[in-house]
Recover the amino acids of this structure.
């Protein structure tokens, strides 16, 4: 998966969330592309990056319920209706967004009054206009309060969001986890026990997936 | 009505829509405040303007289904959670937005897939968080295709949006129109005939409003 992560943040070094995600992105083949507020954009370079990517991820903290000014500036300088419709068609567009408020505040009747997905409507509209595939946003609520286990889960979810094949189904997800486990174990030549266990687990999971596929096919026939 | 119109546009002189609205704003007591992209903001000055206003209007063209970068930059530099909750509470927040696409494109299933109101959710969330009164946005679709009559109607609607007392009811609206007509006629000392007609119309309308109010009160009793 040729993925491009466009990171919009006024001060990357000061953001524990972004530093954490940067480490996560390094574990994948995704290209990390930071929009440096101190530099001018080169439209030719930016457009080339977009054209080469199969999946485009916009990553930013939620500022006043939307993207930071730097991303809007980038959109205004780089994108045009013709460009997005001709060059971005059929690519995938995803959003990785982090918030300072907890999840419970993002509902009608709560503090914010809208879900994060509702607030990101402008980006879904962009995907819609460009005939891109819209990936459900990956929202990180209050990173600083995540437990170690939650951080590890986020690390996995984030990597999957960046590079797991589209669409996100039980099958693509399971295959991705298996591949990841194999990659990790092969790095450590001494872990033959882990490798053997993983191979067995892999076989079992592949088998379960086949069974699930058959059950699903049967259901489709019944329902069809 | 002490209204502040914050205008965000990268190049005001090149926008027929903004030039038209500027003329409209001049016919009211609203303060026109242009966010000059070539100048730095003075947080103290900007905050003072906000504190003094009873109604705050954000006015901009829809760029990539949201506000231009200059407005986002202003929000990031001027607003804070404490400031909006402590200083903007109970004020009114409105949006005047113009689009290059026609109204028919702003529906689910259409080109954009969202209504303008849905795309402006981040601003409604801001109003919600700040405990401000949210004014339904005034949307101007494809200004360049408006007929003379439609432009005149827009000029009236825009002035009402800027300074007509809150909330927008039949009564406040009628009173505003009457006031406007009287103001216009008093400018021309020779138009005594028009003045007399207007006075008569005013009396009739006031009378009708009283009758409407009585009918409404009666309905409320029946329904109450």
């Amino acid at each position: 998966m040729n993925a491009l992560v466009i990171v919009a943040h006024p001060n990357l070094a000061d953001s524990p969330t972004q530093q954490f995600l940067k480490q996560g992105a390094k574990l994948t083949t995704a290209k990390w592309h930071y929009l440096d507020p101190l530099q001018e954009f080169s439209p030719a370079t930016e457009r080339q990056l977009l054209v080469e990517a199969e999946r485009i991820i916009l990553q930013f903290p939620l500022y006043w319920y939307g993207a930071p000014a730097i991303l809007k500036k980038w959109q205004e300088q780089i994108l045009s209706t013709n460009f997005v419709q001709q060059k971005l068609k059929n690519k995938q567009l995803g959003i990785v967004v982090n918030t300072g408020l907890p999840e419970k505040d993002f509902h009608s009747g709560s503090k914010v009054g809208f879900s994060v997905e509702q607030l990101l409507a402008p980006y879904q509209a962009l995907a819609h206009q460009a005939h891109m595939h819209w990936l459900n946003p990956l929202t990180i609520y209050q990173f600083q309060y995540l437990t170690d286990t939650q951080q590890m889960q986020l690390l996995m979810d984030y990597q999957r969001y960046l590079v797991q094949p589209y669409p996100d189904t039980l099958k693509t997800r399971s295959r991705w986890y298996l591949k990841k486990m194999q990659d990790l174990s092969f790095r450590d030549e001494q872990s033959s026990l882990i490798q053997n266990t993983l191979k067995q687990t892999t076989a079992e999971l592949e088998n379960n997936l086949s069974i699930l596929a058959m059950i699903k096919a049967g259901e489709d026939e019944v329902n069809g």
User: Anything to note?
Assistant: Chain B has two domains: 3-167, 169-224. Chain B has a mean pLDDT of 90.
